[in-house]
Design brief:
The chain is an alpha/beta fold. It is built from twelve helices and 16 strands. A hairpin with a 2-residue loop joins strand 14 and strand 15.
Length: about 350
């Protein structure tokens, strides 16, 4: 699928970008000709470069030989049109993982979120259109917070989706698709590392409200969704994974275990939802099944290629719909190696 392709990953030094890079290097979707890591943080790029330079053995997970030819790094910012256009020369596939994604940060600095989450995608589309770049596919990474958004982060991500969907009209030779998913377990800034640090410090563990629920998936499941969209997605579609959800109180209590640590309820933060939604009641009427995923067809009739279809669901898809039991959640955390390790804490090791 991606054999001999040149791939650009914007924000490639982030949690998702690094796992996506590892999976691309594994060869499971073909061996790329080149992977370009595009981001503005030289320290993270240097750390990622050194990490791969230190790999000397071929494993089942990562192809290390020829990484110098395969993996390259480019400093730039999705906010800057000229650096985006330069990075996209001779690129076949773009994964846009660059984002401002912290809800409180986006509330306090809303226009910064606009510049990264909206102007960044616009720069990608504009570069393809104005320079007539032969990009085959663009995959935009979105979030459940873009569905019926109540915070700046979600609002900017919702507009990102619409910029990419409409981009199919401006770039008729490029397939532009999106993926939308919920909380990624253990990604930078997510709730599990936050709870880990609070537990490591002896508590208390802070919960905003006792009835809060969230969709949960691993970084590898996020990449699975991206690859599924790459394989099966049609122009303008948004891919949605079918993933479990859980009560945040259950998550906190399982991580605390039998430690003498209290939980306190602090109240909902600015822009925070009680339940997240992956597909709204408006979108469900144009949602179909694509393999093991849902696909939301584009809202624009000029882009929508499906003229006759049967909707896959009849109501919104909410994190409050089908909660995991505590036993199921504990098994998920154990399988993902996300339980708090006291011995690692005592040795001063970083929590995953």
């Amino acid at each position: 699928m991606l054999s001999n392709k040149t791939i650009l990953i914007t924000g490639g030094t982030g949690s998702l970008g690094k796992v996506l890079t590892r999976r691309l290097l594994s060869g499971e979707v073909g061996t790329p000709k080149k992977i370009i890591i595009f981001s503005r943080d030289e320290a993270k790029q240097h750390a990622m470069r050194v990490e791969y330079m230190n790999k000397v053995h071929v494993t089942d997970e990562v192809i290390y030989h020829n990484f110098e030819r395969l993996l390259t790094f480019q400093i730039g910012d999705v906010r800057d049109f000229h650096s985006v256009a330069s990075a996209m020369r001779n690129v076949d596939v773009v994964f846009n993982t660059a984002a401002l994604k912290q809800v409180p940060t986006c509330e306090y600095f809303p226009y910064q979120a606009v510049m990264t989450n909206i102007e960044g995608p616009e720069n990608i589309i504009r570069a393809i259109q104005e320079h007539e770049l032969p990009v085959e596919t663009v995959v935009g990474i979105s979030t459940d917070k873009a569905c019926k958004p109540v915070n700046v982060m979600g609002m900017t991500k919702a507009i990102q989706e619409r910029v990419f969907i409409q981009g199919n009209m401006r770039c008729p030779n490029t397939r532009i698709i999106c993926v939308r998913y919920g909380n990624v377990l253990a990604s930078r800034g997510s709730v599990i590392p936050f709870f880990h640090e609070q537990i490591k410090a002896g508590g208390p563990v802070t919960i905003t409200t006792t009835d809060m629920t969230r969709f949960l998936l691993s970084l590898n499941q996020a990449v699975d969704t991206i690859f599924a969209a790459l394989r099966e997605g049609k122009r303008g579609e948004t891919f949605i994974p079918r993933v479990p959800s859980a009560l945040i109180t259950d998550l906190a209590e399982i991580l605390i275990g039998d430690r003498p640590i209290k939980t306190i309820v602090t109240g909902v933060r600015p822009g925070e939802k009680i339940h997240e939604i992956l597909i709204s009641e408006e979108e469900c009427h144009r949602t179909i099944e694509r393999g093991n995923y849902y696909a939301i067809m584009p809202i624009l009739p000029e882009v929508n290629l499906e003229k006759e279809f049967k909707p896959a669901i009849s109501k919104e898809y909410s994190s409050d719909d089908d909660l995991m039991s505590r036993e199921e959640l504990q098994k998920l955390l154990q399988d993902q190696k996300l339980m708090v390790d006291d011995e690692a804490n005592q040795n001063g090791e970083l929590l995953r």
